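Hi P.,

Sorry for the delay on this. The queue was packed all week, but I finally got your sequence through. Input first:
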Amino acid sequence: MKTELSVAEEKGNRDKVAMEFGDVLFTLVNVARFAKIHPETALADSTMKFEKRFKYMEKKASESGR
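Then the structure:
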């Protein structure tokens, strides 16, 4: 998988990179379903976690004058 993405990137073939990336996403969704994890819910939860961490970092940076 990584090799195919790397080769496509090296050749500058954005369409091929997009196709390989799609294959990765497809595989991850199926792994999640096999593990009885709803992929959309998992992604939403991760997004919320990222937003909370980012807001915390923004707050700390603001408090320190950065």
